[in-house]
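2024-03-11 09:14:02 INFO receiving multi-entity request
2024-03-11 09:14:02 INFO entity count = two
2024-03-11 09:14:03 INFO echoing inputs for audit
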Amino acid sequence: METHPGVPAAGSSPILEVRGVSRRLPSGGRTLTVLDAIDLTVPRGEFLAVLGPSGSGKSTLLAILAGLDRPSAGEVRLDGERLDGLSEDRLAVVRRHKVGFVFQSFQLLANLTARENVRLPLELLGAGDAARRADAMLDDVGLGDRAQHYPSQLSGGEQQRVALARAFVARPALLLADEPTGNLDSATGARVLDLLVRLRRESGTTLVLVTHDPAVAGLADRRLHLRDGRIDA
Amino acid sequence: MSPRPWPAWLAREMRGSLGRLLFFAACLSIGVAAVVAVATTSSAIDRGVRAEARRLLAADVAVSSRRPLPRKLGDTIAATPGARRADVLELPTMASAPDVDGSESVRASALVELKVAAPGYPFYGRLELEPEIGAIGDLPADACVVGPDLLERLGVARGGRVRLGDATFRVVATVVAEPDRLNISLTLGPRVFLSPAGFARTGLEAFGSRIDYRALVALRDQDPAAARRLAERIRAAVPDVEYDDVETWEEAQPALRRGIERVERFLGLVALLSLLVGGIGVAQAIRAWIAGRMEAIAILRSLGFRPREVVGLYLAQTALLGLAGSAAGAVIGSAAARALPAIVRRWLPVSVDAAADPYAVARGLALGVGVAVLFALPPLLEVRRVSPARVFRRDAEPLPASRTVRAATAALLIAGVAATAAMQAASVARGAAFAAGLVVVASLLAAAAAFLIHVVGRVPRSGGGVALRYGIAALARPGAGTIGAVVALGVGVLVVVAMAQIQGGLSRQLGRDVPADAPTTFLVDVQAAQWDGVRSLLERAGATGIDSAPVVVARLRAVDGRDVADLVPDGPDAGRKRWVLTREQRLTYRATLPAGNRLVAGALWSDPDRPEVSVEREFARDLGVGVGSTLRFDVQGVPLELEVTSLREVRWESFGINFFLLVEPGVLDGAPQFRVVAARVPARSDDMLRNALAGAYPNVTLLDVREILGKVVAVLDRIGFGVRLLGGLTVIAGVAILAGVIGAGSIRRAREVALLKTLGMTRGGIVAVFATEYALIGLVAGVVGATSAIALAWAALRFVLEVDAVPGLLPPVVGIVGASALAIVAGTAASVRALRRRPVEILREE
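2024-03-11 09:21:47 INFO inference complete, emitting structure
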């Protein structure tokens, strides 16, 4: 079953439903509980900020939401589909159609030019007009003239803008962002954040953003505080 | 320097790099194994030849000559107390199976190597016969012993009759093993043994133009000095001894051993090549290792280590690792050498015990450690440039590079390669030539690879699948570091493909029917009175292009008034010069220039007053003569002085009858002579002609060019086998290096895998992407290596071997496809760990 990407499904079923999710990791002979009985529902189109000190489990939660990591207990539904029990390859296909990512350290493919990085999600979907859409997206983030550059030839802010273009180009239903401004100076960070907010508004994409910056969190519709793996009410 | 804990520092620095360092050692092991295997095998063969030297000579001292041995020799031997003598003579001739006993008509015939042995032969070793019938010298005059292959060729059983010259002989036994027959190289045909009494019945000695006379002497005193003393006395006492060959068992077959040594030098260089390719792997391993140790080096520097101490620390580790890798290689090489004689036994004249050879192992260790240190130097010297400021800022500028240090490093590297090659080739000049050639080839390969990668990078990446586009992108990415791997793999492909092409071209040229205008058959020892009859037999067999020339056998006595005895050089490298001076010279005469000859100096028969000779150009160079020189010959007792009035260039590859020495007509009319005849005989009449000749003119020897070329091809195939085997090791070293390069980038690759999975690519898709990238690397290496191989093979065939053969296209295609396939296998194997990376790890790293 595949839903058309990007377009909210009929009705108003939530994009994400998390029920009793825990994540335990073995650590030096004992078990470390990174996430403990998390319940969370994210409606379509919402901008949710996840806050918390380092080690509170923010990134692990993000990984579980994307099917990159598996919960030790509990269940996760993405667009109504249960993620636990899916094979690695099936999870990859789900991400391909529904999830976009922005990372703190950009994570562009060093082999590929900016344009090729942006085209990749479309190519994975087999989109026929990948070239045109990728170029349009790069224009949209203001990097139309840097399309032929390799990541190593771009500044940090430019790299993160390419990453945003890559994340939005396939119009995913859900965008997950992990400290997207954490590696940038404050002025560049503010510009990137503005761009992220604008693109989300235009596309109507659900955004789950991890940050420890209250100012960034202030832009969100809702804020979720994590402490020691639990939601801090 | 005050005592510092260097060993502890070394151990600490090596901790945690085990995988990379194992790869480093493996790079060296392959090459060292090849070097050690070649050296061990060849020295084992040499030992075998020395150990069995008496048997191989069948005597303590042997004197051989192309003319009957002089009486004076007998006197000298007789004056040595306890010395015994047995004469042996050998000649090629025709053996045939008569239709009916006593009739002249023949049903089968073959060229044989006839050997006549007097009682006493062999003094050492044993002639094994089936059945054992006693000494060959005591054979009855009507009996012969033959090689089993002759019985098969003639369709005769033991007890049957074989005709040689004018007489027929009963086959009483077959030869199982002959102590002094060196069948490592070409033999003309099966062996036939007669006693002197039997040989006298054949009447062949009267015609024999190519009899090798040999006196074998056994001494009572087994001390090598006794043999040396006798050889000295013979050289002093026997007249014209410079035309003869006096050999003692102690010299142990110098010609055979020189041949083995030449093969060893050649194979040793091919083995060195795989070691040097391994050196590229060492350089890359060190570079990757250092790249991962930058922080550590900066910290050491900030703690007060001087740059040269840091370099020393890493250089010592390199040497230690080089030693470990080389030791592993030496063990593998010794084991391989031990297994090899079992495979090549039947090609060797002696039994070989290839036990581990300390000298070969030492050579392998020295070369392995030397190559490791040499190739590690350039990346290690970069350590000097690490700024201690990296401790505070990761992007601290590296210290400025010294141009002098760089140039010196490059020079040292090239000098080192030349030194290793000189060691393997046992010659400084050959070592330098090898190093120069290698530097040129490696530079060309690197340039071609860089160019191809650049071009591939410019291909618009719009069409094709994701895997192809991504693979191309990966290859073209700046700083991908694939050029070294491409060069290494390319050198391997170059060696294997070029050798296959040269050997294939040569085999094709020799193996296919001889050129349409060239003779297929030579007849030797045709007497003047037999010529008309022989000619009509040839015509009846459908022969075309019948050509013949008279031959007068002579000895060269003086060049420009100086005696040949004074001109003959001594020493091992005197071979060719000695040969041109002392060989049995074959003179011919005719009024006009033969076809395929071209005058390059002087004019033919231009001096009305003096008898003239025209000399082939290279022969003249070896003799040291030019137009205006004089040559004095001894024509079977009659002196003859000739003036050189022209030099000729001869197209030898026409296979026609050609001579070094062409004499003005009229001068040699009265001299004893015979004719050589060349003709083109249709393959279907070969047997008929040979049988008819053997029946009517049993003294005439028939040489079948097709058959001889077939034997040459067989020998070439044996040498080619060894070269391809060693060349294959170069390919393996290249593939290992490619795997190493990919493995060294596994951290970057693991991140890519995680990211691609995060973006929604399946594992199958990622494997396809990587396989495409590796296939492209193999493709570029294959194309560059195979293209260079075609050029090299073409040049070698054309200019060195002077063969008119076009390199075949199959080896390059196999090389390119094989390189791609190997690259995919090695690359994918090296990426397995990266492919297992789970995408979540990419988030954990942050």
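2024-03-11 09:21:48 INFO post-check: The longest helix of chain A spans residues 186-203.
2024-03-11 09:21:48 INFO post-check: Helices of chain A lie at 58-65, 88-98, 114-124, 130-140, 156-169, 186-203, 214-217.
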